[in-house]
Design a protein that fits this description.
The chain has three helices and four strands, in the order E-H-E-E-H-E-H. The chain has 123 residues and is α+β, with helices and mostly antiparallel strands. It has one domain.
Length: 123
């Protein structure tokens, strides 16, 4: 299984030039030649990306969201909602199991407010 966390650089096994071209042109994936790593950006077509990788690598591809609180993987590949959650359209404000506790909602709200203030957004 290949896990790709949105917003984080990742590597892939070597693919042919035809697959690489599809990833760049059709999926609009970003590639850094120096790092030899890929990045999913807002303009990346995630459905096309996963379809290309599944076909080329013959492996399942799971898109992971970062935890809103700690920034680590929210654990989408192990989530009970994996089959029904479309991570290409849902909010990217999920919380991992480690950060989800008794005061998770309050902590989430505090962090959300701080991020809004840092972005200078008026509520």
């Amino acid at each position: 299984m290949i896990r790709i966390m949105l917003g984080n650089w990742f590597t892939l096994p070597r693919v042919g030039s035809d697959v690489f071209s599809k990833l760049m042109r059709q999926a609009r994936l970003r590639y850094d030649r120096e790092k030899r790593m890929f990045l999913v950006e807002p303009e990346t077509n995630i459905a096309t990306l996963t379809a290309i990788l599944r076909e080329a690598l013959k492996e399942e591809v799971v898109i992971e969201l970062p935890c809103f609180v700690c920034g680590k993987s929210a654990g989408c590949g192990d989530c009970e909602y994996l089959e029904i959650c479309d991570r290409t359209t849902v909010s990217n404000q999920c919380i991992c199991k480690d950060c989800f506790g008794m005061d998770a909602y309050e902590h989430y709200c505090d962090l959300f407010t701080k991020k809004l203030a840092a972005a200078k957004v008026k509520i």
